[in-house]
Amino acid sequence: MATQLIKGNSAVIIGALYAGCDCFFGYPITPASEILHEASTHFPKLGRKFVQAESEEAAINMVYGAAAAGHRTMTASSGPGISLKQEGISYLAGAELPSVIVDIMRAGPGLGNIGPEQGDYTQVVKGGGHGNFRNIVLAPNSVQEMCDMTIKAFELSFKYRNPAFVLADGVLGQMVEPLKFPENAVKPEPDTSWAVCGNAETRQNLVSSIFLDFDQLEEFNFQLQKKYELIKDKEVDYEEYHVEDASIVLVSYGISSRICRSAVDAARKEGLKVGLFRPKTLFPFPEDELKKIADSHECTFISVEMSNGQMKEDIIMATRFTRPVELVNRMGGNLVTLDEVMDCIYKVAGKEE
Amino acid sequence: MAEKVLKRPDSMYAEFTRKGGAAPTATHYCPGCGHGIIHKLIAEAMDELEIQDRSVMISPVGCAVFAYYYFDCGNLQVAHGRAPAVGTGMSRARDDSIVMAYQGDGDLASIGLNETIQAANRGEKIAVFFVNNTVYGMTGGQMAPTTMIGEKTVTCPEGRCAEEAGYPLHMAELLNELKAPVFIERVSVSDISHIRKAKKAVKKALQVQKEGKGYAFVEFLAACPTNLRQSSEQSIRFINEEVEKEFPLKNFRNLSEQVHPIVRGKSDYSKEALDNIFDLEHDSSMDSMDIPDFDQIGVKIAGFGGQGVLSMGLILARAACDEQLHVSWYPSYGPEQRGGTSNCSVIISGSSIGSPVVYQPDILVAFNRPSLEKFAKDVKKDGVIIYDSTVGDCDTIVPEGITSISVPATRIAMEAGSKKGANTAMLGVMLAIGRTRLSDDAFNRAIEETFAHKPKLISLNQKILNDATEWTKSNVE
């Protein structure tokens, strides 16, 4: 067991290396660049492959190439870069290629600024590129989880042959915390049943997303949806904090969820029954779990996010309009503050009295 | 002779089952199209060089989108224009593979121009086969980047006009400006004598790949009778008499004898190697523990970039980490680091930490006046402000009732041996006033760890730390 103080962006690369990722392709962008820097430092030391690509499109297509070879490969960027990568992500999903994409979200739209935000929720969680596909999306809220969820993203992307995202924000990328290093190092082997490795064994394999025949493409789309249903069934992950008796349930992911945890502690000290529900997977979104809470007792949900209520919509859908869902949000690079969350708690608690 | 010419190369499927339909040996290409000829040349060269098993063909978007119907080797189908990027990924992952990107003029010279040039410039181990028929085929006869001046297409019905649409792009010439490519040649497949020469170029390009020497590019002038509305005689005449004038046939470069194979290392997946690069054996702290009576302390450190603001925060964080406390460090980042002001938040706590951003510091360390002005008003009522004495008179800035200490940090550091250690002097004051509840030992160890790779700086900084502690004892009540 070893622990070091590590930056969130560096923790991503530590996770990737221990997960057996041997091909990194990226393009610089604040606040994700340290991921690229760390990869450029460490990958070559281990004979692993690093290319600073000419563009985000090129980076994601290099990922497509290495993924087609069955290797563990990844890229990392921030909002504007993720927008550019969406073409390639759609192709990865269409060709069912495993790959990991890290998004260190910054404030938008357009060039916006480099401050932290969670405004990429919709473009990442709902698919983003053309066609009927979904990404697996993991949402860390600590440096430890930046590492651990990168490892998990590789596991899930290979298990389901699907692109997997680690969706974090500028704060998680830039902050430093103690990191427990992984205890295992993965030595992956390409799955020769589908990968194209440039050898006799895989000569008959084809990686493609073309289906000229409408019915065949429709059938493939239905198969994809079945896969997503299976992922929804098996891979939902979340954390509850004092939710059981809570009349106010904060719902929050990523850095915002840590502020919410402080808010729960503060509110409980004042005798207010407040809890926190933190989705650790955003796709699959913990719909049933939220519905269960909504059904189990009278409560108000508060979506706390650094975006324009993008996750709030999913909470409303999950709880089927049965409970009120309030919103506390900041945008533009600002963090939600403890005071803002507390104000909303007081407001809701006041209403209930 | 006739028997030999008609022989099907092994690297091409006998029946095109991926195509489907009633005619499994017919291609999907139009009569008179150049693709079929080029496919066959490539497959023959793969046979002759015995590289079929190692080969990966990348099908583009365009008429050759279905190249994987025909080539009996590993096949990838990719997005429009991205073949060289995908090829880069494949080639890097599989050093032994022989990667071919097969692209038309719209794909390679228009939407994929950047990928084309950059992969060539990196000298990727890819053979790029560029089919230039001066028109978009599959998409419906639109103007291509290689359409000739005056040539009519669907989107330049009056003929390409330079004032509106610029001039045909000369890809072989353009790539020949780069240093990295090993082999560049332009050939034609208009008729038998041209096809024979083309075959030689294809084989050389693949020989370069077989030897792992780098980037090879073959441009083919080819016919598209359908979209250019030509008979087969017209199309041959068009290529030989008009297109060749615009795009002269020649070998631009062949460095295959001069260059050495590029060998990319094998990936090391061992845990030992990983633990080693992160120095886990020597550099490791204990895990943090919950200490219920240790209340959270928020520290804000601010100054100009280059004053050691961020590194001071990290040393403090290390000291806390070594004491098994929960700790976080969060910097202002981006352009702020370069030139302007810089700050970081450090939180030390006996329990898990919420937001890592300190809005109301228990301790503010200000290296300059703007920082003091910006953050002094946020300091908690029982908080402490430590500022560099060079800031000057601060009575108007420090809010009433808040303890403030003016520290001659630069002087303490200079007297100890280096003015760069002003941040360590500030740490010494912080240690001496005891608000962080961290021990002398923790600070000293944090300095040792921080400068582990610059041993000379350990004793210097420890001296500064100690001097500043002594200064505080003598000067602060």
Topology, element by element:
The complex is a heterodimer of chains A (353) and B (477).
Chain A: E1 3-7, H1 8-18, E2 23-26, H2 33-42, E3 49-52, H3 56-68, E4 73-77, H4 79-94, E5 99-107, E6 113-116, H5 121-125, E7 136-138, H6 143-160, E8 163-169, H7 170-174, E9 176-180, E10 206-207, H8 214-234, E11 238-241, E12 248-251, H9 254-269, E13 274-279, E14 281-283, H10 287-296, E15 300-305, H11 310-318, E16 325-329, H12 338-352
Parallel strand pairs in A: 2-3, 2-4, 4-5, 5-8, 7-8, 12-13, 12-15, 15-16
Antiparallel strand pairs in A: 1-9, 5-6, 7-14, 11-13
Helix pairs in contact in A: 1-2, 1-6, 3-4, 9-12, 10-11
Chain B: H1 2-6, H2 35-49, E1 55-59, E2 74-77, H3 83-93, E3 98-104, H4 105-111, H5 113-122, E4 126-132, H6 162-165, H7 171-175, E5 183-188, H8 192-210, E6 216-221, H9 232-246, E7 250-254, H10 271-277, E8 297-304, H11 309-322, E9 326-331, E10 341-349, E11 363-366, H12 369-375, E12 384-388, E13 403-407, H13 409-416, H14 422-433, H15 440-450, H16 456-475
Parallel strand pairs in B: 1-2, 1-3, 3-4, 4-6, 5-6, 8-11, 11-12, 12-13
Antiparallel strand pairs in B: 5-7, 8-10, 9-10
Gyration radius over CA of chain A: 20 Å
Percent range of helical residues of chain A:
40-55%
Q: Class by helix and strand content of chain B?
A: alpha/beta
- Which outline of chain A best applies? globular
Q: In terms of quaternary structure, what is this? A: heterodimer
On the 0 to 100 scale, the average pLDDT of chain B is 94
- The CATH topology assignment of the largest domain in chain B is Rossmann fold
Number of strands of chain B: 13
CATH domain class of the largest domain in chain B: Alpha Beta
Largest interface: A-B, 79 and 76 residues
Terminal CA distance of chain B: 105 Å
How would the global form of chain B be characterised? elongated
Label the structural class of chain A: alpha/beta
Can you list the strand order of the major beta sheet of chain B? Answer: 2-1-3-4-6-5-7
Count helical runs of chain A.
12
